[in-house]
Amino acid sequence: MNPDRMALLEAATAARATGEYAAALRHNEAFHAAGPADSLGSFWFSIFALGEWAALAAVYPPARQALLDLRDRETALLLAGQAVVQRFADGAVARRFKLVSELNQQLGDQRATCDTFMALEASAPDEARRNFVDASGAIVASGEYACAQRYLAEPSADMRKCAASLNAAIASFGTDESHPSFIRKMGEMGSFASHLRLHEQVLEGLGDAPGAQRLRADALAALDSDATRRIVQQELAQPGTIAGLVSEREMERDAQRARDSDATQ
Predict the structure, then answer these.
(1) What letters, b where the CB count within 10 A reaches 16 and e where it falls short, cover 48-76?
(2) What is the pTM of this model?
């Protein structure tokens, strides 16, 4: 990340904290207009940094209007065929739909993401398909279940495939309980639970609640590990459980580091 851009973001945060809202807005706008990213990681960070602008928008109406204006400009570019924000030397591509969907997320406007996706479906179906994963939550939240179904594989076969992939991933870690392995395992379980939940929501939305129940039972039964099954069940019952487990593990690691540091002093 360009250090000058980081300085702008830090200035925006500091100005918001001291109530200098107009200055904070100028810094946010300058951050997001500061030229191309130097890597896909920098592009992702720019998207993450929209959270600072959204925090300002919650207390300063002109910032919300500016965020809406940015969303509208980026949406217009996307629907005009400018689907790529930037291509990087390593072949990575920053796609504009991701930026638009995150702007809508920060604005609390899932319906706009769904509408943009459906407009993209009509004008650029290949681009719509590339972005379905990022759009799926908004599509389901908007009740467009038939639209979601068009992009999902047959549920039972898809979840069998996902279960086999998760089983293989968990087995590959063996007895490795290191922090990186723990984080990766949690990520694999979270992805499985999210994909299953998406299928369930679509089935239920299309009036097949019994099918959704069967799908869950079969998907859970296909998991080899009781421990994995239990965590997935907890995540399905209470979304955010896995994020909580990761947070607890992070805190435990930080506490252990602090104890180790004290012991060496």
Answers:
(1) ebbebbbbbbeebeebbebbeebbeebbe
(2) 0.84
